[in-house]
Give the backbone structure.
Amino acid sequence: MSIQKDIEKTAAGDDHWSQHVSETSDALDLEAGVFSLANPKDIAQSLKNAADNSRRRKSGPFRSAMSMLTFYINRAGRHLPAAQRELLEEAKDELRALYGRQRQNPLHTKRSGEQD
């Protein structure tokens, strides 16, 4: 489907354009339910696997994985419960760690109640 048709479809009131983009873009083939996993490390690992194995992505694996995670958080917006948003923000730091990047929020290095 062309970008123009996507725009026309969105302008016509289709409120599921982001789902369409996720399903048809050349981004990543994600594991079903990846964003609803309970452990940020599992979310990050799943995104990393998808990005590393993708032959369709248009940028590096880290950037592709982080973009998909950010896209999901932004599209959920205010409908995303605070606890889930926090978990996904922790997943960002876990993703950074998996790719050898510096964590942005040192508070996310260990979740409350979690042991080394």
About this structure: The radius of gyration is 15 Å.
